[in-house]
Amino acid sequence: MTPSSLIRPAVRLLLAVPIAACSAWPEGEGRAPIATDRPSFSTAPLLVPPGRVQLETGATVTHVDDGTDTIGLPEALLRVGVDERFELRALAPGWSSVSSPGSDRSGWNDLGFAVKALLVPREGLVPDLGVEAFVSFDTGEPGFGSGRTDGGVKLLLGQALDDASYVVANLVLAGRSVAGERVTQRATSLYASRALSARASVFAEWYGIDPIAPGASSRSAQSVAAGCQFLPTPRLALDARIGAGLDDAADDLFVGIGAAFVF
User: Fold this and answer.
1) Which of 20, 71, 117, 161 could bond to 3 as cystine, CB 3.0-4.6 Å?
2) Are 43 and 37 in contact (CB under 8 A)?
3) Cβ 95 vs Cβ 72: under 8 Å
4) pTM value?
């Protein structure tokens, strides 16, 4: 099975998720405790509760109009709540399969670690303010790992508009290695979510990365995405998303599904 053959079933699942989510759970139940960073590009300043361990995982299929399709999994992020202001994070190496005209290849990418801290909790008009520092190590296979140790920092802002709506903004500065060359990347994202019920929500976001690769001719890449999440149990969240690039440097289409578990 090629990555392109997975796109249509993933889109069908994406369309089915909000219907299942809205019909499966009655209104009026208490809010479930699990809160995930999946499946968006943006990272919220919210933390895993102290003493909890949370695993977030999924798969994404991307398509580029030149005929290149990529599938990546398991996108495994392990989050450990240390206290009310601090969590530890580990990003397991993921496996990618790339299919392009005349070429098919696959391999494992790099291992990463991060810490996320809530600096200022939300109060009135003052938003949640957090920061995440992250690092990745050269553990991936040639062509899939960066070839060097990379890292960066994210500024995380979050604000509740009402009991059902939450907006997030990220500013990211990172040192990345692409094909052995170092580039300083800046990224910006805006994200908004809306609860449909106590167990179902939808989101939309925009994000941009500048530059996408080293070199004076490298351009920025901008994308938009939308998705949904529902909770079969208070400790399990399922999600689906779909997105598209806004310029030639971004992937033309991507779809993904995932799950998160609290232990």
Assistant:
1) 71
2) yes
3) yes
4) 0.86
